Amino acid sequence: MTFESTTKLAPLNYISPLVQERILIGLGSSSSARTIQTLLVPKPKKIRNGRASQFHLKEDGFELLQGISRPDYATLQRPRDRFYATRELVVPLATKLVRDRFGLTPFYAHFTPPYLRRQTAASSLDTRDHSSGATPHAMVHNDYAWDSYQNMKSISDYFGLPRDSPRLGKVVQSFQRAGRVIVLQFWMNAQPEDTVIENDTLALCHPRSIQTPDLVARRVTGYNNSQYEFTILQAKDSPTHEWFYWPALGFKECLVWVGYDSAWGDDVKPCFHTSFHDSTVPKGRPRESVEARVIVFLDEKLQSRL
Question: pTM of the entire structure?
Fold first, then answer.
């Protein structure tokens, strides 16, 4: 299959330039949902075909993986089954990527519950519970920020584990030992094997095109119905932003990006991402995708950013 290198033009939802302060947003309430809508401004952006270029996870912050042995999510209806099937794939994959791309040896990797997104799910900005599926997230954002390391160390709910789980102790010990923590995020087609993602696909912004003044920190409530709060990053629109997408993402393909690296320090260069609507693509099968995250723990302590 060949793909054109044509650039798409589509509106992406950025944070309003009028927003300066850090505001607590509870994503679960209808009043907060209306507040979120007033903060977002759609901006027409050029989105280039990522298949026309080669990207490397370490140098570029994201990469397309091909030939992966992905589970058949169409047969995995229970959240528990999706959890274990996804963990079996991405934990070894994350460990291998850190070894092969960064030349580093993890001593532990922790998998958090995967997020299932269905275009046919009830439209809602409530992202607290992904077990039954949520709509694609059409907002320019990065799931981590400057304080993510301290948040992850201090908030056990973040790991998707009950407080009496024996695995929680392993995660806490790993944070105490680690000199560096990297979070890899994986985005996969969750549709049947003979289908590709055509509608409401994912766009990634190259970290090299992000400047510090573009960043807006936002406090939000936790995922999976937990009560804790954490910080994400949203972006103000900038003409320097370089956006990419991968048309017709197939069954054995996966996008991976660095969601967080403690080696960044204060010089955060996030991989902003969002879903977007491509009006040039005929309306086909509704999108179904899975996002998974792996926290990789390393003894190495690196001062420079990726």
Answer: 0.87
